[in-house]
Amino acid sequence: MSTASAAPRASIKVLSGWKKLLARLAGLLVRTWSSSLRVTQSAATREVAATRCPTLFVLWHNRLFVAADLPHRFREARPIHCLISTSNDGAWLSAFFETMGLRAVRGSSSRGGREAASELVRVLRAGHDAGITPDGPRGPVHVCKPGALVIARRAGVRVVVVGVAYESAWQLGSWDKFLLPRPFSRVRLAMREIAAADLHAPDAPLRLEKTLRDLNPPLAPPAAPGA
Q1: Is the pTM of this model over 0.70?
Q2: CB burial readout 119-148, b (16+ within 10 A) else e
Q3: Considering only Cβ atoms within 10 Å of each terminal Cβ, which end of the chain, N or C, has fewer?
Q4: Confidence check: pLDDT of 59 > 70
Q5: Average pLDDT value for the chain
């Protein structure tokens, strides 16, 4: 499987040797981990996920763990193209995503961003799927930046917001408080398509942000002993 590139190649950090092998081993581990999760969804969510048209999936950065498994669960043979930064962190994530069956478009808001966004538009216009985290790659957490809406408008495709609610998860100390669901725990997946008119509304970023917050509840605190 090839990986799409949008920024000048010299500026893109890539892995090789044992680092690339380690990232791929991590991807295989996560695929096994993900298969242990008990994922539930409503009939409406299954219908939205199964609609076979080019789609831009939008989700919070700290819910990426489950999102990487979406094509295997709902959209077989339709890999999702993801915008990943050109940094060293992005190099690890790109190699990891390749193992998960996703495809990387390398770029960021500061380096190669315009070219990478144009590549995502090209991918969507060609009939493929793409995914983007509007609060990535460095935040602020749960604040929508306009890139997802700009890409959707240019490509003329539908936008589907992804919500992930974990029954039990570990919360990391990263900028986004990344969530790792505990193996064999229950995960509730929700998807909602954004109306085309809402994509062009003056307050579109705020509407998208509200939908993401509605579909992604905060992690519930652990129950007190004896509760």
Answers
A1: yes
A2: bbbbbbeeebbbbbbbbbbeeeebebbebb
A3: C
A4: yes
A5: 82
